[in-house]
Amino acid sequence: MNKTLEEAVSFEYALLETYKKLQLSEKEVLVLLMVNHLLKKGNALIMPSTLAMVMNYSEKEIDEVLSGLITKKYFNYSLGDENRSPIDGAKTIIYNSLFYEVLRDSDRDVQKRIAYFSHRFEDLYQRPLSPIERETIRNWIDDGYSDDEIQEAIQNTNAKTSLKRVENELKAARKRKEEDKNNASSPDENISTSSPALEIAKKFWNNEN
Description:
Helices cover 68% and strands 0% of the residues. The protein contains 10 helices and no strands. It is mostly helical. The chain folds into 2 domains: 3-95, Winged helix-like DNA-binding domain superfamily/Winged helix DNA-binding domain (Arc Repressor Mutant, subunit A); 103-208, no CATH class. Helix 2 packs across helix 6 (88-125), helix 6 packs across helix 7 (131-142) and helix 8 (147-156) crosses helix 9 (163-184).
């Protein structure tokens, strides 16, 4: 399970975002939400009778739902194990689904950006780009260069000469920015706290707020 994402995105939000794709029924969703709610309130022992007291389902109905969730590995009574939550399995499945969904969305965005800049260079060169040239553009994006940075590098170089000149300008511009930042900030402020997982978590945290 992605711990960074779990810390930034509530279980309720993650469940509601993914349950349809995971083929969970609304009844299963409601039971999982109630289990999570009771766990937050300090109820360590979750049984069908416990849930029946606070839900409009009979104990038999809830027992059937929990049996199905156990089969799907979303629920476990975890009796006598203080280090395990009855919905640890659900959290693993749900957060992994959410994480990979974000990665797929991110990859689609990357493909669109590659296509945009590939078409731009093909217009400049009046020929299709080679696979190596497309991979070069992909590397710029993977290295974290923004569209604005790439556009600026194209403008500041004779892009018709080669992609290498654009790449050298990108690296030089980044180096200049880092030097300016180092000159203007303290050592502690230069420590990077970013990571792909953290950026994904920030995105979902912002959506929740």
